[in-house]
Amino acid sequence: MKMTRRDILKAGATLSAAAITLPVRPVDLREPGSDDAAPAARERLLLDTGWRFHLGHADDPTRDFGYGTGDLFAKAGEFFGPSATDFDDGAWSRVDLPHDWAVDLPFINDPDEVGHGSKPLGRKYPDTSIGWYRRTFDIPATDSGRRISLEFDGVFRDCTAALNGHYLGRNLSGYAPFRYDVTDLVDYGGKNILVLRVDATEHEGWFYEGAGIYRHVWLVRTDALHVPQWGAVVTSEVGKAGATLTVRTEVTNDAESAASVRVRSTVLGPDGKRIATATGTAMRVEAGATREATQTLHVAAPRPWSLETPVLYRMVTETLAGTRVTDRTETSFGIRTMRFDPDHGFFLNGTRVELKGTCNHQDHAGVGSALPDRLQEYRIAKLKEMGSNAYRTSHNPPTPELLDACDRLGMLVLDETRMFSPEPEGLGQLERMIRRDRNHPCVFAWSIANEEWAVQGNDRGTRIATTVRDLAHRLDHTRPVTAAMDGGWGKGTSLALDVQGFNYQRASIDDFHRRFPRTPSMGSEVASAFATRGVYVTDKERGYISAYDVNRPSYGATAEEWWSYFAAREFLAGGFVWTGFDYRGEPSPYAWPCISSHFGILDTCGFPKDTFWYYQAWWSGHPVLHLFPHWDWAGQEGKEIEVWCHSNLDQVELFVNGASAGTRDVPRQGHVSWKVPYAAGAIEARGMQGGKVVLTDRRETTGPAASLRLVAWRTPLAADGEDTTVLRAEVVDSGGRVVPTADATVTFAVSGTGRLIGVGNGDPSSHESDRGPTRQAFNGLCCAIVQASKASGEILVNATAPGLGAAATIISTTPATPRPAAP
Ligand code: GAL
Description:
- The protein is mainly β.
- The strands form 10 sheets. An 8-stranded parallel beta barrel has the order 23-24-25-26-27-28-29-30, surrounded by 4 helices. The protein has a 6-stranded antiparallel sheet with strand order 3-2-4-9-6-7, with no helix packed on it. Strands 14, 15, 16, 18 and 19 form a 5-stranded antiparallel sheet that branches.
- Helix 2 (373-385) packs across helix 3 (400-409).
- The longest helix has 17 residues, at 459-475.
- The chain is globular.
- The protein binds beta-D-galactopyranose.
- Beta-D-galactopyranose (GAL) binds at residues 9, 394-395, 450-451, 503, 525, 528, 578, 586.
- Residues 9, 394-395, 450-451, 503, 525, 528, 578, 586 line the site of beta-D-galactopyranose (GAL).
């Protein structure tokens, strides 16, 4: 049997400080004495709480609320059994969004599902692959005459929706946002019943993807004369005299007669103050039509959005019928220039920036794909701390809040679509991604494909890529189109690209550059190195691989191998490591009982592996010295242990129990190492620059585990029902040192004004529940994810472990206005 690389991956056979941003209140732009309507023309209400959930059945209608029996599509208003007003959902569980039901499913030993995270989702698992969601909400009688719509940021996947028994539609991709205008279907002054049947039987990728309504849902109310979803676009040209903004605004008239409308665009600076306003001339919009207005505004001394200072501006868009403000939306944007150069790589605001990137999937410890918004910030902040400046949303459009976090924290994004196709489904996914994301200053390019083996090197690939690229260019002329290819460069898909992406295969890059000297290029995917956090001796039985930077698949590269190659080539714009964080699924080089990947530089909880400091040394620009492994090798006395140091200093001297083991010059883009016989005590690295010791790092032999320590990522939290923190539980000895091999079973108890939403430990072979409250420490650490309620006060987090007593910490929560929510 011929094995593809995917088969090999599946079988595991190959081995060769975060910014706090609170919701921005709209600014009242009315002139004193004006007769403008109050700026509440649009309401966007979160529809995340108060849902009911029940598993259905893919094969058996009697266990699927009758779905598939009766005359489903025959008559309006009779769709779905659970749509009935008298349907009793009392036996359904109460859930809030974001929600990923796959997190609650057990792990299963099925070779077909290993890549996807070993969860019972698929044709073989009809009783756990369908999820039903039900939510009732009120629409006041006073809403009559307004437009009401429901916006879904992402549902995994194949979602069929109905409102009040009326079929709304079906959305296939779990990564594409979708929306229904339900104005004609709601009951004004009454209860409305929204029902979704979500079918996660099919996978879209080859990795863990979750299941359910794992992103936000919104109820949006507007005037009949309004800006349609994603209908305002701001682009900027920066010159000597400042920035010229071009604002294109679509206006939809859903009223029964034509309207005369003016668009008023107001730029607010980073401080929220008004900088410039343009009011367009009146434009006639026929009933049922959408028209676009274009305006130009000037910002005299723009502050550029950069990685160090990610300055954000806001565009307030208003539509006016006479003096009545019929709609008002806000768009966050940045002013910056970007360009690719075939000889010198990528430039941001005129300065060459090497893309020090990571590819990532979207799941996280404890919560699966259903991340509270704050966790996006946690993850981006960790990557920034490592010195990373770019993020590839492999292999799908991200949750919108990920891009918000990248905008705010200063992280470039390569935004990738899921389906590579010139047909409506594929183009629709791409169009929604670009329309949704094109105002984000963080997004620097669109990726239209990843390793499309059937077509990447042939003519069909050229045709598909040309159609897809042309649509991308039409929707956004400011960003280049690229694709992540692992073959076929210079033909096929390649011929349609603005920037060539290379996945692995370094040997082909120089040759391509010689043959296509005018095409800019970058490493769209590099490394795929394996490491398990805190493991220094590979243990195949348990599915752990040593964290020295030496393990990689035949096609991949160690951190040092790929980065040395890229750092030496100015024409390359940099690259994206596979991956920043570990993720569920693809446990290569192992298979079951391993259930999550070893590719991450950080584990699924965000705890760094040692290679984190390799990247920090060569990416961050500040002095770094990191010594490993730990020094707890009882029973190995006298045996040689390999000691490594990641550093960017000139030299490092190692001391073992006070005696020098030698000084090493640190090679550029490299590391230093020694082999020393083990004796309990301490190893110490002294890092020198200009002949002086500037940093030291020590590993000491620890005593037995004695107690627990809890460290909160951030406190206080906003009491808005959404804010979240991560608590690191450390198993420590009597001297307060983390015991690097400790595996105590920790039980978390959360009380007060917050709740426990998940636990994790980064162990790729752990089959414990992600919901907790219990989790075993893995190599000394585990974590609890805690979310604030809407009541301000204190969250008490208590952690206990047999024989180690209790550790407690208090997280205060401060009064905050929750986001406006649907009733
Ligand atoms: C790549 C692929 C990634 C991941 C990786 C593992 O080919 O694009 O999604 O599977 O291999 O090394």
